[in-house]
């Protein structure tokens, strides 16, 4: 088997390669060629940790595996390592033999940013000029870098619940050569053609009244029951797309609108259908589109498989006998 350590990932797989891997697996999911296994998530009663597995099989790409890991809230303070820890294991679908073990921490950020970027490519208006960011934590920087690849954005406007975190996001915008303004949510909605929400909130920040017609919104923070970033009425107004419908209505942003009877499961479309051309996507320049990015195991496996290929090509994958 091959080992690709966490420390090698940064120099190995680009945002562009992550984008291609995630776009392809979303397409395979919608075509019925790839599916995710039920997610396991356990509070293990040790170190307040949440541990779990996200797995799946992509028959078209012949990628089988699992991401194992979770959240250890005391890591940073007690041990100086990040709280989110994960590792991807890939298996040979012909034999069941383990093929690779890949550090999954940076890959998680790359695959999450790739998902919103795929949604912007397929759902945002082609003339989108202003990017709005709601959130300024760890993931927001990856989101911003991946998003700006998809349209000729001229400006970034941003709001965060903790305003002191915004200057760091401004530095990332500056690196990308984009003007950056911190604004109120009203100003953000009035200006932004594309909005990414990437927070850990349990109550909505972005309201229906904030958002102008024609906006594309990628809701990326809500990945657990109870979390919520945008008002349910906004989800109700929007044409909603997602990575996986079952997750969207149970742990994604759509859980609240569906729970309140404002949206039906049948109103939500897998983004892969738009990629495959079996759904037209945005219906007009006035349509508000919303991508509910809940995060599926197949995204992790797709970028991990690409990382293994690249590591083998570059001779940096460690080969061990098992
Ligand atoms: P982080 O802890 O670095 O940042 C958290 C962000 O949420 C900050 O901007 C913070 O100001 C904001 N926030 C905190 N409390 C808030 C509140 N009450 N109201 C509004 N905003 C609030 O976290 P991160 O690593 O950037 O992750 C952000 C979110 O993305 C988390 O919820 C995480 O679980 C989720 N996530 C989703 C996926 C996916 O595939 N969809 C993947 C990775 C992470």
Description of the molecule:
The termini are close together. It contains twelve helices and 18 strands. Helix 6 (166-175) links the parallel strand 9 and strand 10 (180-182). The protein has two domains: 2-108 and 298-319, 2-Layer Sandwich (ornithine cyclodeaminase, domain 1), CATH 3.30.1780; 124-294, Rossmann fold (3-Layer(aba) Sandwich), CATH 3.40.50. 35% of the residues lie in helices and 26% in strands. The protein is α/β, with parallel strands linked by helices. The chain has helices at residues 6-9, 15-30, 75-79, 105-123, 138-147, 166-175, 185-191, 232-237, 245-250, 254-259, 271-276, 297-313; strands at residues 2-4, 34-36, 40-43, 50-58, 63-71, 84-91, 98-103, 130-134, 155-159, 180-182, 194-197, 202-206, 216-219, 228-230, 239-242, 269-270, 289-292, 318-319. Nicotinamide-adenine-dinucleotide (NAD) binds at residues 108, 112, 135-140, 160-162, 165, 198-201, 205, 220-221, 223, 293-295.
């Amino acid at each position: 088997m091959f080992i690709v350590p966490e420390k090698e990932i940064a120099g190995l797989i680009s945002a562009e390669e992550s984008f291609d891997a995630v776009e392809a697996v979303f397409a395979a999911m919608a075509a019925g060629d790839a599916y995710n296994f039920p997610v396991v998530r356990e509070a293990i009663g040790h170190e307040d940790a949440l541990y779990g597995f996200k797995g799946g099989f992509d028959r078209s790409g012949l990628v089988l595996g699992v991401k194992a890991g979770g959240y250890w809230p005391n890591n940073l303070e007690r041990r100086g390592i990040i709280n989110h820890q994960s590792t991807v294991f890939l298996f040979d679908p012909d034999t069941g033999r383990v093929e690779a073990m890949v550090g999954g921490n940076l890959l998680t950020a790359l695959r999450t940013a790739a998902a919103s970027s795929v949604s912007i490519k397929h759902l945002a208006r082609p003339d989108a000029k202003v990017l709005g960011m709601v959130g300024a934590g760890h993931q927001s920087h990856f989101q911003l870098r991946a998003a700006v690849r998809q349209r000729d954005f001229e400006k970034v406007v941003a709001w965060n619940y903790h305003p002191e975190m915004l200057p760091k996001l401004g530095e990332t915008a500056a690196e990308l050569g984009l003007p950056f303004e911190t604004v109120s949510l009203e100003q953000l909605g009035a200006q932004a053609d594309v909005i990414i929400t990437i927070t850990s909130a349990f109550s909505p920040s972005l309201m229906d009244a904030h958002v102008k017609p024609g906006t594309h919104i990628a809701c990326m923070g809500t990945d657990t029951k109870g979390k919520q970033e945008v008002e349910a009425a906004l989800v109700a107004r929007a044409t909603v797309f997602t990575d996986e419908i079952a997750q969207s209505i149970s742990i994604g942003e759509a859980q609240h609108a569906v729970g309140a009877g404002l949206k039906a499961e049948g109103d939500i479309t897998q983004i892969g259908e738009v990629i495959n051309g079996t759904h037209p996507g945005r219906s007009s320049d006035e349509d508000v589109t919303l991508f509910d990015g809940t995060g599926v195991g197949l995204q992790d496996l797709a970028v991990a498989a690409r990382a293994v290929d690249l590591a083998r090509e570059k001779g940096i994958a460690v080969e061990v006998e098992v």
